[in-house]
Design brief:
Layout (H helix, E strand, L loop, with lengths): L32 H9 L19 H11 L25 H9 L19 H11 L25 H9 L19 H17 L1 H21 L3 H22 L3 H24 L3 H21 L4 H19 L1
Helix pairs in contact: 1-6, 2-4, 6-7, 7-8, 7-9, 8-9, 9-10, 9-11, 10-11
Length: about 325
């Protein structure tokens, strides 16, 4: 899940849990470093006997199910060696039988139409999301009709759409460098850790993190719409992001990340306005709006350096508008 942006608007409540680098193959610069360190500290994930984590190693469906259940603190009792779970490809006595049984009992998993579960098949993004949300009793039924996302590789009629729609809205998944969501992407240990971690942030912190996550998702969508020259859509995204960060200020106005997030949203909103002005031939107005976007962006960075990656993207685009308008 290598991202064009980090999870910028995140209240790191787990920072006190994970202080030291645990795995030599997961440096602090790794996109999933906070996720891996946190889930290791919470005893959700483990490393290998050689001391490594192997972040790029693939994850099977049954391994993903175990990680999800561990993160949700579900009690998964041992079963007898003769336990059967109703799938033709699940052998008795395997370590994972109890997780399969628990998952089936709770309707977290149903298996394939041929009566198998395919426990050793690598898990993909939408399979993980479905198991993750069902385990945590998240109702996604209200998201099946959500439209307007600027990601062309998601099928709005597919079974997975409500799950991916919820995940996009709350920034549990992010687009790649080509602004694709990749619903069928096969996941690694780092990918799974990052996804589970993002949901944990929302569930542990509550309303504030939820609002900030939605705001960041909207700003990522705005960038994608700008790339596709859908400037009106980008303006809708930024307007909603501004409103959400104003709501966050009402919840916790003293937190620097909240104040910075609001400034980022305002900066991006000015950028969207500048693109609209430029497309309408209003060059001087576009220049003024771009300069305001840069100014507000710098204010955001002075409040919290963590927003710098997004601010730099805004500044590059704003300067591009200024240069274009002056030529």
């Amino acid at each position: 899940m290598k991202r064009t942006l980090t999870t910028l608007f995140t209240l790191l409540i787990f920072a006190s849990i994970a202080k030291a680098k645990t795995f030599p193959d997961v440096p602090e610069s790794h996109f999933a470093y906070p996720a891996i360190e946190t889930l290791y500290s919470l005893k959700v994930l483990k490393g290998y006997e050689d001391g490594t984590f192997k972040p790029d190693k693939s994850v099977t469906r049954v391994e993903a199910l175990k990680i999800i259940m561990e993160s949700a603190k579900l009690a998964v009792p041992e079963v007898s060696e003769n336990e059967t779970v109703g799938f033709s490809d699940i052998d008795k006595g395997q370590w994972y039988v109890r997780y399969i049984k628990k998952g089936k009992d709770l309707n977290i998993i149903k298996g394939n139409s041929d009566g198998t579960f395919a426990p050793q098949r690598q898990v993909n993004k939408v399979e993980l999301l479905k198991m993750l949300f069902l385990t945590n009793k998240i109702d996604v039924s209200g998201y099946k009709n959500d439209q307007g996302y600027p990601y062309l590789d998601i099928d709005t009629s597919a079974w997975y759409y409500p799950y991916i729609s919820y995940a996009i809205k709350y920034n549990i998944v992010s687009p790649n460098e080509k602004t694709n969501i990749e619903p069928a992407k096969m996941l690694t240990r780092a990918d799974v850790a990052e996804t589970v971690y993002r949901l944990l942030l929302i569930s542990k912190i509550g309303d504030l993190q939820s609002v900030l996550s939605q705001s960041e998702s909207l700003l990522v969508q705005a960038l994608a719409n700008i790339e596709k020259q859908r400037f009106d859509k980008a303006k809708e995204n930024t307007k909603d992001a501004v409103n959400l960060t104003e709501k966050a200020k009402n919840i916790a106005s003293e937190k620097p990340i909240v104040l910075a997030a609001n400034k980022v949203a305002l900066s991006m909103d000015k950028l969207a306005q500048a693109y609209i002005s430029l497309s309408n031939g209003k060059k001087e107005v576009a220049i003024t709006q771009s300069e305001e976007a840069i100014k507000i962006g710098n204010e955001a960075k002075s409040i919290n350096q963590g927003v710098e990656p997004l601010i730099e993207k805004i500044k590059i685009k704003a300067q591009g508008i200024i240069n274009h308008a002056k030529n």
